[in-house]
Specification:
alpha+beta; two-stranded antiparallel ribbon; 3 helices; 23% helix; elongated
Length: 183
């Protein structure tokens, strides 16, 4: 039996990095989640993980999985993701275990007709709070250098812009009806 709490968040204004998208995990479990090293035994089933998007291309990952400390980096370019991980770090240089650094490599290629759209959407940075007013909010920041006009090939963004235009037109019509009724 185990329980896990996860939280996705954006750390804004991190020195040198700017905004860092992250996913944090914290869990507690019995049985398989109690490790064989001193730190693992002291945590008594507690495990945690962190994944932070350092830039549009690079991700850093670290975890204490209940047995050991593991860490790694990921590189994502369009449909291809490559990850290299160092696992069982806590066992390195222990006298009672003849462990050497262990490295894992993972390559993933996404065969998906929407993967180009998904790649661009991963780079979105949305505003912290919606702005007020009927015409505000029609242009959003997608990344530090792009506006929605520059990402015109995304059909979802095009549809959203069309909905906003229809809403603005309906608001104008309602204002005209309101003025007519008041007269």
């Amino acid at each position: 039996l185990y329980i896990v709490l996860s939280k996705s968040t954006v750390f804004r204004g991190v020195p040198v990095l700017g905004n860092v998208e992250s996913v944090l995990h914290l869990g507690l479990g019995r049985g398989r989640f109690v490790g064989n090293t001193e730190t693992s035994k002291q945590l008594n089933g507690l495990f945690a993980g962190f994944e932070g998007k350092i830039s549009n291309l690079i991700t850093f990952m670290a975890e204490m999985d209940g047995h050991n400390v593991n860490a790694g980096f990921g590189l994502t370019v369009k449909n291809l993701t490559a990850r290299v991980g160092f696992y069982r770090i806590e066992e390195i240089n222990r006298d009672d275990i003849s462990a050497e650094p262990r490295i894992a490599l993972n390559l993933k290629y996404t065969f998906d007709q929407f993967s180009e759209i998904k790649y661009k959407e991963r780079n979105q940075v949305l505003p912290a709070a919606p702005s007020a007013g009927p015409t505000s909010g029609s242009r959003r920041v997608i990344s530090d250098r792009q506006s929605t006009d520059q990402v015109g090939e995304n059909p979802l963004l095009k549809e959203l812009e069309l909905i906003r235009q229809k809403r603005q037109q309906a608001e104008k019509e309602l204002e005209e009806i309101k003025r007519t009724l008041q007269e």
